[in-house]
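Database export, one record per block. Field names are fixed; values are copied verbatim from the stored entry.
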Amino acid sequence: MTSYKRVIQQNDKVINSLVEFSGLERWLVQNIVQYANQMPKVKGGEVDLLIFTAQMSRQFDINATHVIQIMYETIKRISKTKVMMVEDYARCVCMFLSDDLDLQIDYAFAVYDTKCDGLVKVGDMSTLLKVCVLSTDPNDETEAEDSLRDLEDFVLKIIENVSKEGLRLEAFRKLVKQNRLYLELFGQCFPSDKFKLRYKLNYSLPET
């Protein structure tokens, strides 16, 4: 009984922490945590890359494996852990659904800052931009290369208007607050609004 009570208390602690972190309603966070606790995991409760990839694809229609791997490593880096646990996964989902733009800016910048040096350059993100282009038209290689060059030129102009060296976090924050579309300036790292809404509907208020 004591053990069960401890589990409940720990679960409540996680839920309270995620509510404070995301600003989401408690019932929604409860459902997110409940799903995260019930989904497949490897021994020890770890959410490995394979499970994370499957969840991102099925729940949020994020399918580019290279991008998902960067997201996975970023979430572990933010959590300062060597493995992703249930709470880390639930925190990621809460961040996706949150209305806190600053929270999402911090996450997006961390994804794009692949060298972990606090600076994002177009060259650093060429792979993500390429994935973005190929997902639009994967069959026409020549057209994809032209589109990639156009996209890189577009992004470069945006960055150079701010700084010649690249984007640091606060410069990126300022850009996104001027135009929210710039949140995914270097490629997808969030689900679409359609899939966020679908997720919320799937985990809507329980019947009382």
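Remark 1: The chain has a mean pLDDT of 87.
Remark 2: The radius of gyration is 18 Å.
End of record.
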